[in-house]
Specification:
Elements: E1 5-9, H1 15-25, E2 32-36, H2 48-57, E3 61-64, E4 68-72, E5 77-83, E6 89-95, E7 100-107, E8 133-137
Amino acid sequence: MIMNIISLNTAGLNYNKLSSIIHTFKFFHPIAICLQETFTSSSFPLNSFEQSRLSQLWSGQIYFSKHLVTLISHNFKSTLFFISSDQRIMDITISSSSSSFNLRNIYAPADFSLNRTQCQFGGFGTKPTILSLVCWVL
């Protein structure tokens, strides 16, 4: 199975930018689009109006935190199973009829003068037993 997974640092995200990103990358038929540095609303869950606008853009699953947005193709089942307390790490199980894998979307601080252990997997919360793919953009 060919797995197209796109990872992008958005340097902030709004509806128009998300729409542009989705329309640009639809051609590649990605299983997932991992977006970092989104700085989305810190109030969760999204209200019904925001949810309906997002669902008009993307027919699959949409998972979000303050720093991350992960879009999963409608052709796959997915389950969010971890978001770190600082909302910089998101773990999702993705499955089809023939396979299953875990995806980790990470937004790590670019300032390496911060605690360096936070920029290694040992500092990134849970360690899934099967971690197949990591989206990590500094």
